């Protein structure tokens, strides 16, 4: 090419002073386009913009352009010459060969612009040089290191992890003179520490060859008066302790440990052991101690003294512990223990057969009374017909949910197939009581009596 020279054909430059002018090519900040609608066509070596923005962006024939963003490497050109340009198409010449590629990626086409700059400014303003200059001036130094050109490790930041590795077992120190710390062995460290004397705390001195010796408070080894081997203690009774085996065995005498020699106990505790199995005594709470004691078992083959059994969760004051180990309400009576009483009422005479009907007998309660049972009896039985049935009323209302019955050929309700059931056991003082005969059988029964069994309340 006329007038074209290779760089090797140029003469060698003189010494660089830094004020030389150099030409720099940069992608234009204004003559450029970025869009996702730009495709590449191999048929005419062109780029095509679906948005028709090439002329608006300022591109002209003869411009050198940089293309980036295509997936195909061939289409991302460093420098291509614009042969022709329309709003929709730029045709590239000058060497780059374009491959077919559909639009979709964000593609940027920018015109190369040339600028001049002196060499010093060009070098100083590169990103790498600026970053290194900032580091040298300590603009980015943080953490453990401070200072500008001369860097200093901050006090207190060098942890164990940041120290050089040590060979174990060893310890940091220094044996002689001033200098860097050293990793000392146990033997080296021992030589540096003080030895115990009467004036200094320190390491126990070497014992020498004497047997049975003890270290004295003056820092020397000596055999105490009375002999060695057993600490100078001869066998025998030494008060609370008996020594045997030439001083090797010390045994606490039986009965020597009184309460005052035991470890202190918390208030309201007992010595014992609640944990299963053999082991050291424990300080038990009242609840733990109670759990260890037997519970009272009532009279009989298995009777046993012991703790009063729990009365249950229902509050009250009417129940008492019986000798069979159960809590029961005692029958009426004086002396604090109610005694059972019976109120017996004759309904008619001994020889006249009664008829069915209400209020065959009426009377009033002499005092408040708690029923525990009711009974009826006959002097003469009936042999057939409906079962003989009687009822008891308090102020006109029955106190029985199942009435009193006397079966045929029987004299008492005790032997009846169906027992009476009391629905109201509390009879009020001066309450009106009436006896009804609900039904009779063949009419041969005579001498009806009704019994109210219980205790005054």
Q: Low-confidence stretches at least 5 residues in length (pLDDT < 50)?
A: 1-6
**Helical/strand content category:** mainly beta
Determine the number of helices (DSSP H or I, runs of at least 4 residues): 5
Distance between the termini: 140 Å
CATH topology of the domain at 341-456, by name, is Jelly Rolls
Second rung of CATH, namely the architecture of the domain at 341-456: Sandwich
The overall pLDDT, averaged over residues, is 84
Q: Give the spatial strand order of the biggest sheet.
A: 1-7-4-5-6-3-2
- The percent range for helix content is under 10%
Rg result? 60 Å
What's the main sheet like?
A: 7 strands, antiparallel
Number of extended strands: 31
Please give the structural blueprint.
Elements: E1 21-35, E2 38-41, E3 46-49, H1 54-57, E4 64-68, E5 80-85, E6 89-93, E7 107-118, H2 119-124, H3 127-136, E8 145-147, E9 151-153, E10 171-173, E11 182-184, H4 186-192, E12 214-215, E13 221-222, E14 236-237, E15 241-244, E16 249-252, E17 270-272, E18 282-284, H5 286-292, E19 320-321, E20 327-328, E21 341-347, E22 357-364, E23 369-377, E24 388-394, E25 397-398, E26 400-402, E27 404-406, E28 421-422, E29 426-427, E30 432-439, E31 448-456
Antiparallel strand pairs: 1-7, 2-3, 3-6, 4-5, 4-7, 5-6, 8-9, 10-11, 12-13, 14-15, 15-16, 17-18, 19-20, 21-31, 22-30, 23-29, 23-31, 24-25, 24-27, 24-30, 26-28
In short:
This protein is mainly beta and 457 residues long. It contains 5 helices and 31 strands.
Please characterize this protein's 3D structure:
The protein is mostly beta strands. Among the domains are: 21-120, Elongation Factor Tu (Ef-tu), domain 3 (Beta Barrel), CATH 2.40.30; 341-456, Sandwich (Jelly Rolls). Helix content is 7%, strand content 32%. The chain is built from five helices and 31 strands. The chain has helices at residues 54-57, 119-124, 127-136, 186-192, 286-292, and strands at 21-35, 38-41, 46-49, 64-68, 80-85, 89-93, 107-118, 145-147, 151-153, 171-173, 182-184, 214-215, 221-222, 236-237, 241-244, 249-252, 270-272, 282-284, 320-321, 327-328, 341-347, 357-364, 369-377, 388-394, 397-398, 400-402, 404-406, 421-422, 426-427, 432-439, 448-456. The strands form ten sheets. A seven-stranded antiparallel beta sheet has the order 1-7-4-5-6-3-2. Strands 22, 24, 25, 27 and 30 form a five-stranded antiparallel beta sheet that branches. The longest helix is centred in the first third of the chain and has 10 residues, at 127-136.
